[in-house]
Amino acid sequence: MEILQLTVSGLANGCIYGLIALGFVLIYKATEQVNFAQGDMMMLGAFLAVGLGNADWLGMPFLVACAGAVAGMAAVGWSMERLVLRRIFGQSQVTVVILTIALGFVLRFVAGLVWGHEPLSLENPLAGSNARFAGLVLGLDEVAVIVVTLLLTGLLFVFFNRSRLGIAMQASSQNQLAAYYMGIPVRRIHGLTWALAGAIAAIAGILFATKGSIDPSAGLLGIKAFAAAVIGGFGSLPGALLGGLLVGLSEPFAARFIAAGYSQIIPYALLIVVLLLRPQGLFSQVMGKKV
User: pLDDT (tens digit, 9 = 90+) per residue, 160-185?
Assistant: First the structure.
């Protein structure tokens, strides 16, 4: 029974890591850029939900506040690409990495300036509610995290495989020059990809905030999500989610069966092992690129 309890807790955390990692991979596949501000976008999305939904702020209904936060972060993601990243298109990866790290610091500063640095909780209808099933005590917030992640994964699968926009995004990620010659507006696709990554970050932030408190330093969770993306395979969308689940599951089991302090280091130990044995990631396919 304890194993099942740890598994549910690990899956809930892993879903959040996986959603943040999904943002990393989406942007990398479409633009070949690594957005190290993805974790901070998650944090800002959570704060937007707090600002819109909590009674001390605007006090909107919970679902309306969530929708507003998702739309707001989609706009932030699009603006970052349109106003900042597009201006350094063609520069080295080091330039992009440094710039996105700086953007993360800016987002953290803005969140601290507006909402302060003390932890805040997102008022939601699931707070403190539990469900009992076959001896398990399941927090409804953890169940909601898993269910929402599964639904979002299904929607993304349909989007990328059935919609014209999703297929255009996949084509752009495979070969930008060929996509351009086929009439696909590659730059517009890049902006939409950043907007989608921002929306997914907001969903991850909302789910994270329903499980506990949020503060500006929560953006550093993106480091674990980056490790999850690399473990799963940085070019693989399913791999990003599965890598997040592996990281999430490793933490509670390490804390229970090794020592509490090891739960924080086990994701990076797992990352080192994967990089040594399978540098391309566990779930990626090695593809050659013609030049």
Answer: 888 888 888 777 766 666 777 777 78
pLDDT category of residue 288 using cuts at 50, 70 and 90: very low
Q: List, as one string, the DSSP characters of the chain.
A: -HHHHHHHHHHHHHHHHHHHHHHHHHHHHHHS---TTHHHHHHHHHHHHHHHHSTTTT---HHHHHHHHHHHHHHHHHHHHHHTGGGGTTS-HHHHHHHHHHHHHHHHHHHHHHH-SS-EE---TTTT-EEEETTEEEEHHHHHHHHHHHHHHHHHHHHHHHSHHHHHHHHHHH-HHHHHHTT--HHHHHHHHHHHHHHHHHHHHHHHHHHSEE-GGGGGHHHHHHHHHHHH-TT-HHHHHHHHHHHHHHHHHHHHHT-GGGGTTHHHHHHHHHHHH-TT-SS--------
Round to whole Å and give the CA distance between 291 and 289. 6
Entry pTM: 0.91
* Whole-angstrom distance, CA of residue 151 vs CA of residue 157: 10
83's tokens:
């106003």
What pLDDT score does 199 carry? 96
Structure tokens at 24: 């990393």
pLDDT at 126: 80
